[in-house]
Amino acid sequence: MTGNHKDKTISRRRALAVTGGTVAAGGLVAAGFQSAFADTADTTTDADATASASSTSGECMTLMTSVTEGPYYLDGALVRKDITEGKAGVPLTLRLTVVDATDGCTPVKGAAVEIWHCDAWGYYSGYTTANPGGSAPAESEEGDSANDQTYLRGYQVANANGVVKFETIFPGWYTPRTCHIHVKVHTGGEKEDGTYEGGKVNYTGQLFFADDIAEEIFTLDPYAKHTGSYTVLADDMVYDGGGAASGLLTLKAVHKKDPSKGYKGSLTLGVDPDAESTGAGSGGGGTPPSGAPSDAPTGTPPSDSPSPSASASS
Fold first, then answer.
1. 55: helix, coil or strand?
2. Is the peptide bond before 288 cis (omega within 30 degrees of 0)?
3. Which residues fall within 8 angstroms of residue 155, CB to CB, at 6 or more apart?
4. Of 126, 45, 50, nearest to 85 (Cα)?
5. Between β-strands 163-169 and 153-157, what pairing exists: parallel, antiparallel or unpaired?
6. pLDDT digits (tens, 9 = 90+) for 125-141
7. Going along the chain, which residue ranges are E strands?
8. pLDDT, tens digit, for every residue of 270-293?
């Protein structure tokens, strides 16, 4: 199994309006999104079932511990369910439920959940020249319609049951990190100019994928064009082996015999709505593929961004 990539830059910028509709780019997206997202409508029955399971189980999950936001964070992600912007890859329906772990796991209505992750070859929007490690085509060679400042980033606001859903693709990897998705939970702000403003960050975390599923996905196109040494969960600098409490997603294949059709991922995020996360969190750094110091980006930040100022390369 091949694969591995690494984040290395943090910079703040405000993303302005851009259409986020899914434009099929590559056979996997064209063939897979319809089936993978067939049940992504925010149905009351589905949401109620999740809320009921959280609030009546008799035991509340452990408060999740914040980890580093990593160096590829950008302010101003758009509020939208579909964050693909035509990026090719295996479809992923992501369903996250935000609950108050300090109050019996009651749903946190109105929480803004923000996610961001790399594309199939390990590139992040805003940092498309950053070397993902190993051998990968240049991000520009994919030929998709994505805005290279905003793809695979977005917010959703939780409904009355604390539930949000995203339509995206399975992330790739970069040296020296395992496959992951970054996540923040915000409260107290509001939607403004297409993004989310104000309030505070209650939780900064990362979502992880079982090794066997990730390795199978990375044998498929377009992931297979990125070759190298993939970092498994046990060797990752951020994942601490705590399972769901540490961000390990529950994954279900849309079609068991055909992983290219996509996956449904879910997780309950137990947070403290009164707490504030700085984004520093835990999790070490690492040397970027280019050999640059861990606090320096390997790619070029957006031209309208301030100078990068981030933590570990994760």
1. helix
2. no
3. 77, 78, 79, 80, 112, 113, 114, 186, 195, 196
4. 126
5. unpaired
6. 999 999 999 999 999 99
7. 91-100, 106-107, 112-116, 153-157, 163-169, 180-192, 195-208, 250-253, 263-271
8. 999 999 998 776 654 333 333 333
Judge whether 169 and 90 are in contact, CB under 8 Å: yes
Residues 220-270 have pLDDT tens digits of: 999 999 999 999 999 999 999 999 999 999 999 999 899 999 999 999 999
Q: pTM, whole model, 2 decimals?
A: 0.76
Residue with tokens 């993004």: 195
- Residue 73 has, within 13 A of its CA and on its CB side, a CA count of 23
112: DSSP letter? E
Alpha carbon 275 to its chain centroid, in Å, reads: 22
Phi, psi for 39 (deg, rounded to 5): -115, 30
User: pLDDT tens across 175-209, in order?
Assistant: 999 999 999 999 999 999 999 999 999 999 999 99
Alpha helices in the chain (DSSP H): 27-36, 44-56, 211-217
Sign of CA dihedral 105, 110, 114, 115: positive
- Taking Cα atoms as reference points, which of 83, 33, 95, 97 lies closest to residue 264? 95
DSSP state of 5: B
